[in-house]
C-alpha cells in the first residue's frame, strides 16, 4: 500500500512535466509528421499525397544542401571545440589579470545575436568594411573584397561568424571542466618531472572528455539548426552557396508557401538530429559504463 501511494505521488509530481512535453513537443511533432504527407499550402483544400513530398526532396539539389549542411556544421563545431579548449587552458593559467580576460571573453555571447551578426555584415562589406580595408592597407589584396558576394567566401564568412558567437560559451564550459580536475593529479605529475604538454595530454584532455562530448553534441544540434546567422548575412545566397537544410526548409515552407514540403524537410532534419543524439548517448555510455548502469 505504501509503495502504491509513493508511486501515485511520484506520478502526480511528474504529471505537469509530462503534460508540458506532450503539449509543447509531442503534439506539434505529430502534427508536422502528418502535414508532411499532405500538399498543404495557401489553398483552402488539402489532399493526402503520401510520400510524394519526401520523394521530391531527395534529389540532387537537396543532396547538395545536405552535404553543405554537414560541412558547415563540422567546421563550425570543430573550430569552436579547438578554440574553446585553447581559450579555457589559457584562462585557467595563473597569469595577472586573468579575471579580466574571463570577462572580456563574454561579449560575443552577451551581445544580442542579431546585433552581433549585423556588425559582422558591416565588416564583410567590400566598400567600407573593416576586413577589406585592413587587407588593402597591408597590401594583401589590391582592391575591395565583397566577402558575402561570392559563394566560397560567403560560406566561410558565415562559419567565422558562428564560431565567434559560439566560442565564449564553449570556453567557459571547458574552463569549469578544467577547474573541476583534482589539483593532486597535476602536483604528482609535476613532481615526477612531467612538462606542461605532457600534463595536458595525460591529465587535462582525458579528464575533459565528458565535457567535450557534451558540449560538442549541444553545439552540433544548435549549429545544425542555426538560422539567424546565415539568414541575416546572406539569406542562403549567393546562388544558394550558404543554403543549409534549415534555410532550405524556410524557403520552401515560408517563402514558397509549400507547407507540406516544408514539413517533410523539417521531419528529415529531426531524423538526422535524432540519429546524432542516439550516437551521443551510445558514446557517453561507453565512456562512463558505471554511471550508465
Short structural description:
With 293 residues, the protein is mainly α. The protein has helices at residues 2-35, 52-57, 60-92, 98-104, 107-110, 113-124, 130-137, 151-179, 183-191, 196-224, 228-233, 245-255, 259-287, 289-292.
Describe the protein.
The chain is mainly α and 293 residues long. It has two domains: 1-25; 57-292, MetI-like (MetI-like fold, Orthogonal Bundle). The chain has 14 helices and no strands. It has helices at 2-35, 52-57, 60-92, 98-104, 107-110, 113-124, 130-137, 151-179, 183-191, 196-224, 228-233, 245-255, 259-287, 289-292. The longest helix has 34 residues, at 2-35. Mean pLDDT is 86; it is low at 289-293.
Tell me, what's the shape? flat
The radius of gyration is 24 Å
How many beta-strand segments?
A: 0
Name the CATH superfamily assignment of the largest domain.
Answer: MetI-like
CATH uppermost class of the largest domain:
Mainly Alpha
